[in-house]
């Protein structure tokens, strides 16, 4: 299948990014794939964990919480975006708030992604445990191929 220009359509891949060294390894893997001629339309996604405390919401407006999530997400995406920009690789980026595995799967479906490429570890010991379970849940429930980069 191709486009009207005769160019083959590119796959769309969702790339969850959390700003960790493991996310950087995922991006390096994708740069290598791109340089080897295996290109895809990259959709970067950072998922922020919602503030669960009712106390915080009593003192902070929903708009301020939303802005904070956006700023944190942009910060977490910064390294990946800089590396892809330096390599001349086009991408789109998104920041979402929600349960991590569910949000990744929902975004992959909404964006029509054919693959998810993600790391197996996050930023710290707790995040490692959570992200390990996130990677497991995404692999189990996504319904599309998932490439895990250690």
Helices and strands, with pairings:
Layout: E1 11-16, H1 21-35, E2 40-48, H2 54-59, H3 62-87, E3 91-97, H4 100-111, E4 115-119, H5 125-141, E5 146-149
Parallel strand pairs: 1-2, 1-4, 2-3, 4-5
Task: Describe this entry's structure for a reader.
The chain has 150 residues and is of the alpha/beta class. The chain has a single domain, classed as HUPs (Rossmann fold), CATH 3.40.50. The protein is 51% helix and 21% strand. The chain has five helices and five strands; from the N terminus they run E-H-E-H-H-E-H-E-H-E. The protein has helices at residues 21-35, 54-59, 62-87, 100-111, 125-141; strands spanning 11-16, 40-48, 91-97, 115-119, 146-149. A five-stranded parallel β-sheet has the order 3-2-1-4-5. Strand 4, helix 5 and strand 5 (146-149) form a beta-alpha-beta unit. Helix 1 (21-35) crosses helix 3 and helix 4 (100-111) packs across helix 5 (125-141). The chain starts with 10 loop residues before the first strand and ends with a strand. The mean pLDDT is 88.
Could you give a short description of this structure?
With 150 residues, this protein is of the alpha/beta class. The protein has helices spanning 21-35, 54-59, 62-87, 100-111, 125-141; strands at residues 11-16, 40-48, 91-97, 115-119, 146-149.
Classify the beta-strand content into a percent band.
15-25%
Instruction: Count up the helices.
Output: 5
The residue ranges in which pLDDT falls below 50 over 5 or more consecutive positions are none
The structural class is alpha/beta
Task: Tell me the major beta sheet.
Answer: 5 strands, parallel
Which fold name is given in CATH as the topology? Rossmann fold
Could you estimate the helical fraction of the residues in percent? 40-55%
Query: Helix-strand pattern, N to C?
Result: EHEHHEHEHE
Query: Taking Cα atoms only, what radius of gyration do you get, to the nearest Å?
Result: 16 Å
């Amino acid at each position: 299948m191709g486009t009207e220009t005769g160019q083959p359509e590119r796959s769309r891949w969702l790339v969850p990014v959390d700003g960790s060294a493991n996310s950087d390894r995922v991006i390096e893997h994708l740069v290598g794939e791109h340089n080897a001629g295996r290109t895809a339309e990259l959709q970067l996604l950072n998922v922020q964990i919602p503030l669960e405390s009712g106390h915080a919401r009593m003192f902070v407006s929903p708009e301020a919480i939303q802005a904070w999530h956006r700023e944190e997400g942009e910060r977490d995406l910064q390294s990946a975006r800089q590396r892809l920009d330096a390599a001349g690789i086009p991408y789109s980026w998104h920041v979402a708030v929600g349960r991590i595995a569910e949000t990744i799967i929902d975004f992959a479906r909404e964006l029509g992604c054919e693959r998810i490429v993600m790391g197996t570890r996050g930023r710290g010991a707790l995040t490692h445990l959570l992200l390990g379970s996130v990677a497991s849940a995404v692999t189990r429930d996504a319904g599309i191929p998932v490439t895990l980069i250690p």
